[in-house]
Write a structure and sequence with these properties.
This protein is mostly helical. It has 8 helices and 3 strands. The protein has a 3-stranded mixed β-sheet, covered by helices on one side.
């Protein structure tokens, strides 16, 4: 787990530096050219950088070992960090939408130059690289933060493409599309934030992680197991806890019952490597 956390931390640091470069480039050119869609895009990118910082803080806390106050460890801090990223997305969506409405009320024609095109195309390439890199590493290390952040960066790609589309429309004499594109950007950002909130809330509220039927199927094949019930799992695909009640022959020894519980734990961890702990309650069969 320590190696996994270290790798995720390095990925977030690399991505943070790239995102800061993207932010300053878009924001500077956006203000110079008075392009609202480009400024909105830079705010979206700024949120990317903020989410990276939140992710780094979450990872730092989550890697701590279990203690008296947190006997199950600190892994949920990564989920909490991911939730904060999503909340920031929703807040940014409202800010971008408000800015677009203001531009509708007081219309201004942006000055699109070659620099605008260079910056947008360059940052688009950077975002494509970041998104693919984060998703690959997120899947590899089962990191909800990296996967959520890659989804966030994916919206940056679509946002950047919409900004480029607004440049074309402004060039052909339709400046109204600059705030229109900003409204569309706000909708994309809002949808992304809400989607992440729905996903991560399951982890924070201890929703089922592993199918009960699948666990039952695996454990039923173990010699000595006569029945399974009260199966529960919680956590995430990064770190999961399972507990279940296993029915065994009432005539077996305590040692034999313990051996069966060890086999149950090993069998489940073999199929699901992200399981951190399995609690097995041995119960005697009521059959004589």
């Amino acid at each position: 787990m320590s190696e996994s956390y270290n790798r995720v931390r390095l990925v977030l640091i690399y991505v943070l530096l790239l995102n800061l470069l993207v932010v300053f480039s878009k924001m500077a050119v956006g203000f110079i050219s008075n392009s609202l869609s480009m400024i909105s895009d830079s705010l979206h990118s700024l949120l990317d950088a903020s989410s990276n910082i939140i992710g780094l803080i979450g990872i730092r806390i989550a890697r701590k070992k279990p203690d008296e106050d947190h006997p199950y460890g600190h892994a949920k801090y990564t989920s909490l960090a991911t939730l904060l990223i999503a909340v920031l997305l929703v807040i940014t969506a409202f800010e971008v939408f408000q800015g677009a409405i203001t531009r509708f009320i007081t219309p201004t024609t942006p000055e699109i130059t070659v620099i605008n095109w260079i910056v947008m195309l360059s940052t688009l390439g950077v975002n494509i690289f970041i998104s693919r890199f984060e998703k690959r590493e997120g899947v590899k290390y089962n990191s909800s933060i990296l996967i959520a952040d890659s989804a966030h960066t994916n919206t940056d790609i679509y946002v950047s493409l919409s900004v480029i589309a607004s440049f074309i429309l402004v060039h052909f004499g339709y400046p109204i599309f600059d705030p229109v594109i900003s409204v569309l950007i706000s909708i994309v950002i809002f949808y992304t934030g809400v989607s992440i909130i729905k996903k991560i809330s399951g982890e924070l509220t201890d929703s089922l992680v592993i199918s009960t039927d699948l666990i039952k199927k695996i454990v039923s094949n173990i010699k000595g197991v006569k029945g399974i019930h009260k199966i529960r799992s919680r956590g995430s695909v990064t770190e999961c806890f399972v507990d279940l009640h296993v029915i065994v022959d009432r005539s077996i020894s305590v040692e034999a019952g313990h051996d069966i519980s060890v086999e149950v734990e090993n069998a489940l961890k073999q199929v699901f490597p992200f399981i951190k702990d399995v609690t097995v309650h041995i119960e005697p069969s009521m059959e004589k």
